[in-house]
Design goal:
The complex is a heterodimer of chains A (118) and B (115). Chain A has 118 residues and is mainly β. Chain A is 0% helix and 54% strand. In chain A, strands 2, 4, 5, 6, 9, 10 and 11 form a seven-stranded mixed β-sheet that branches. In chain A, strands 1-3-8-7 form a four-stranded antiparallel β-sheet, with no helix packed on it. In chain A, strand 5 and strand 6 form a beta hairpin. Chain A is globular and about 40 Å long. The mean pLDDT of chain A is 92. The chains are: A mainly beta (118), B mainly beta (115). At the A-B interface, strand 5, strand 9 and strand 10 of A face strand 4, strand 5, strand 9 and strand 10 of B.
């Protein structure tokens, strides 16, 4: 199984709602990532989990709260979002989180959750 | 923060023409990866370049990493309509481990191929 799955595919929420995005991989990867992507822009890194521990938080507002319950699952909890948070949220995983010459840090992306905040 | 500059932003070609996109960093990269994102899709890994001066080929695609490891290019020979999409480079820098796992994407080149 070389797939990263994300649910839901689409999500519409109000600014006072609480919702969660889910991501799952069964490739045995030890690094998982959340990215935000606006239209015609590159993915922007939000969080990195390495061996189930949060290793990078790119100064993301606290209304986004990541969680890694186990090595296969990654959640992104959303609360009190703003309309400018509307975007495609991509989850990715890689076998190895490291930099350097490892071949094993290619990232496998899920299909994303298209989020609209009203 | 460290950035990768990618040009051009858009490229329109006739089917059969060649296409090249370029990425440049002001500081030495540890390695660089290339991804393709089809319209409505998600990024898909194409290749990783690690060594100075490295050249790798995948059928009609040729990837190069500069001698100084500050620039990279992707060249597609004889484009086809299936090549349509956005091509991103994504770089990593050597920094003592503080950005362990972090990829920084270039702005991307949106390729349109006219049949």
């Amino acid at each position: 199984d070389t797939e990263v799955t994300q649910t839901p595919k689409h999500l519409v929420m109000g600014m006072t709602n609480k919702k969660s995005l889910k991501c799952e991989q069964h490739m045995g990867h030890r690094a998982m990532y959340w990215y935000k992507q606006k239209a015609k822009k590159p993915p922007e890194l939000m969080f990195v989990y390495s061996y189930e521990k949060l290793s990078i938080n790119e100064s993301v507002p606290s209304r986004f709260s990541p969680e890694c319950p186990n090595s296969s699952l990654l959640n992104l909890h959303l609360h009190a979002l703003q309309p400018e948070d509307s975007a495609l949220y991509l989850c990715a995983s890689s076998q190895d989180p490291g930099q350097g010459q490892s071949r094993y840090n290619e990232q496998f992306f899920g299909p994303g959750t298209r989020l609209t905040v009203l | 923060g460290q950035q990768v500059m990618q040009i051009p932003q858009y490229q329109h070609v006739q089917e059969g023409e060649d296409f090249t996109t370029y990425c440049n960093s002001s500081t030495t990269l540890s390695n660089i990866q290339w991804y393709k994102q089809r319209p409505g899709g998600h990024p898909v890994f194409l290749i990783q370049l690690v060594k100075s001066g490295e050249v790798k080929k995948q059928k009609r695609l040729t990837f190069q990493f500069g001698e100084a490891k500050k620039n990279s290019s992707l060249h597609i020979t004889a484009t086809q309509t299936t090549d349509v999409g956005t091509y991103f480079c994504a770089g990593r820098w050597v920094d003592g481990g503080t950005s362990y796992g972090k990829l920084t994407f270039g702005q991307g080149t949106i390729l349109t191929v006219h049949p």
